[in-house]
Amino acid sequence: MACLGPKCSLYYMLISIWGIIMLALMGIFFQIRSIALFEDIKVDEKEWAMANFSKSYVQEKYEDNAINCWIAAGIYLVLFAWSFFQYKLNARQNYEMS
Amino acid sequence: MDSLLRSEKMTLCQMFLQSEAAYTCVSELGELGLVQFRDLNPDVNAFQRKFVNEIRRCEEMERKLRFLEKEINKDGIPMLNTGDNPDAPAAREMIDLETTFEKLENEMKEVNSNSEALKRNFLELTELKHILRKTQTFFDEALFHHQALHDPSMTEERIGLLGDEQTVRPGQTMRLGFVAGVILRERIPSFEVMLWRICRGNVFLRQAEIDSPMEDPVTGDNVHKSVFIIFFQGEQLKARIKKICEGYRATLYPCPETQTERREMAIGVMTRIEDLNTVLGQTQDHRHRVLVAAAKNIKVWFIKVRKIKAIYHTLNMFNLDVTQKCLIAECWCPVSDLDRIQHALRRGTERSGSSVPCIINRMQTHMVPPTYNRCNKFTQGFQNIVDAYGVAAYREVNPAPFTCITFPFLFAVMFGDMGHGLIMFLFALFLVVKEKSLESKRNSNEIFRTFFGGRYIILLMGAFSVYTGFMYNDIFSKPLNFFGSQWAVTHGDPHYSIEELYRNEKIGFDPNQTFLGSPYPMGIDPIWQFAFNKIAFTNSLKMKMSVILGVSQMFFGIALSYFNHRYFNKPLNLIFDFIPMIIFLFCMFGYLIILLFVKWIKYSPSQSHDAPSLLIGLIDMFLFNYAKYVSPGSPVRDDQKQFIYNGQQGFQSFLVVLAVLCVPWMMLGKPLYIRYMKKYGQRADFQMVPQDEEEEEEVMFTTSPNVVSPTNYSFNDGKFKHQPLSVNSGDLLGGGGSEEVVHNLESNGALHTEEAVEEEHVDLSEIFIHQAIHTIEFCLGCISHTASYLRLWALSLAHAQLSEVLWTLVFRIGFGLPKTYGSIILFFIFQIWAGMTVLILVLMEGLSAFLHALRLHWVEFQSKFYDGSGHMFTPFSFSHIIDGGLDE
To answer: Which segments cross the bilayer (chain A) (predicted)?
Structure first.
């Protein structure tokens, strides 16, 4: 049963390939605590002050984000598999039609 | 090399084609596609030309084919497009084709008219069937009423026979007539109202809808209809009702009165419908078979007919020889392809079985030859960009080969981002790799075709953007730290301690203390992402880069004009245009570029506060404002500036004076020289300077009208003018060797532009005005064009900022969220961010950067050397005709 049209499934395929690569890479960058992403982990100054500006607070934030990124990449992997399946289905239906 | 830089050498040729071989020869040339025929009878009306009949026949064939195509499309039969390209059929094959098409068309028409008649018949029968079926219920109801009102045994007839006056009256009132018919459903309401009004309510209308839609036999549309039955009394009413029915285009059918008759009729109708169905099916089958057979060939037929038509159209441009034995054609063709053209002619002659060979003969002309740049699929896109501005004048320097590199590069300077560049690159790579299959699909979407046509441009633009993105160190607005930042805070430095951090919101890094000494190996140091003054830093860098790139491109443009002047042998332009232009531009901006590099190299971090402001320095240079300057190395007060090198004041003043002197040099030099030469009559020997070595024996162009004296046209000058020709071919054959193609290389000289002819008559004052305008345009242009190149900086800044904003405002929402639901939100946010990145940053920004790169090439670069006044070489080629035909 094809839920997505041929164009829609192609779109999701492309965007999930991009998503998988990019989010997986970003997960790695978060994991290695890339400074360029420091502004993206949203350090709350007050909370950080409460934690006495400890390093572990920031580390934890980085790791949370890394895991989030990987989970999102995983979701994209599922999306990719599904849209790929849909794409094949569409292609086969097209073939049968003609 | 020469053909890459300039358009092909063209020559005007004359062809003598034997009338029986002309058709095949032209068809061979059409396959070759290297010859542009001139219309030799431009004043002759299209209807008075020789082959007008053949063209008419071709058009008739095309009409028949279009009719067939329409029928095939109507039946939804796929047309086979094998993409093969049949040769142009021989002239006699045309009759075969004509008869085939005639037969097919007649057959089609017959089948169509038959099936239409059958369908009409079928429709009538089905309507009748429905009437019989539906009216049955009405009659049943009526019968019921009848019985309710009357004694069932007392039918009207019986009463009448009995002559019982008492009962006849009510009986007569019940003697109802009726008509039954079918009407379009949407007409029912007004039909009912009309009946009521005209018959004053004395009729009884019943109607029922027919559930299944009927097919209109003429249009083939589905229509909904209703069955109606009207009961009435008396002949007068009947006449009226019939009129109304006619007015409403209702079809009335005879309906028997008694039930048994109706049943019999219904059975009859059913059998007839079944018979009709089989006949209809057979007709359809036959039609389908005919169309399927036609669909296999229709594309090939189309191509064949178009080719025949094109050949006759070309033959119409030819002149007839006095003896009627041969046709004379004139054509432009590239010199280097003359051999191939001769081969094609020989093949054509052989195919036609003619014994007399066709002759091709180069001739002299005063006309400007068309511009023909040989392109492959890679350079074609860039050539199109250049041609969109103006087709290069004949043998002018063609900027397209340089555009292949500079265009994507300037684009990339404005579009520098590794991520966006990669997306663009991958998209174009897909188009390039799938080139063959995408091309054969012939996608009709215009936007897609535009992208597809420019796939190599996009590919290069993407690749170059990745490079410039690497230089700017931007990937989706984030930097990459490949080599390690060259800024570091040494541990325990008191300036950058924790206490300092507590005290200040921001800390300034002093390069003397934190810079490690050697710059980041390639591109911008990633540390700048966190800098408060990042934009100020990149602005200064990008501005300098764009001035350097822009001024070098302008220098390059002027340098190309040197090749033009050399080639067209215009030493005046060389001395009075090219040299002052170079000096002028160098004095102003060339010097500035040198200073830029000096500033980058000379000043170390410790001296950074001594570095001069170059823009102010440039302004001071032109105002001779040196009061506040001190010599290099000496201490500088706040309101003072330092010289960069000793003797700067003198050198800069010299440059300014030189630049100012260039203006009268450019403005007055050429007109004054021409005036002088005119007075003393020595122009000719100046202009007779021989051509450069690469030209060998051929002198293609000269500016001087003196050279074009009749003496240079010793060979058949009188005969080969461009009036409709009446050359005695026998003379030529005798003179040039009977069977060989006549070449006359030795008299190949002195083609010249129309411009040159005009120049002679141009007034001296006009030269003055022209030159003055030219000078002012250039001098002002130098400044405004340099400023215009700053768009490289502006757009690159805008692009970088936009992508950063998109990251901060959209993508960042997805980060820093708790583990539980953060990933889900990230999942959705990524999609939004990715979509906006492609739409806004890649598509929209890419388009704007493309347009700006286009402008920089057309206006700032090409204005320095490019005339663009040529006309395009449009060869007679079947492939163009077929492509054009399919696009229609």
So the answer is: 12-32, 65-85
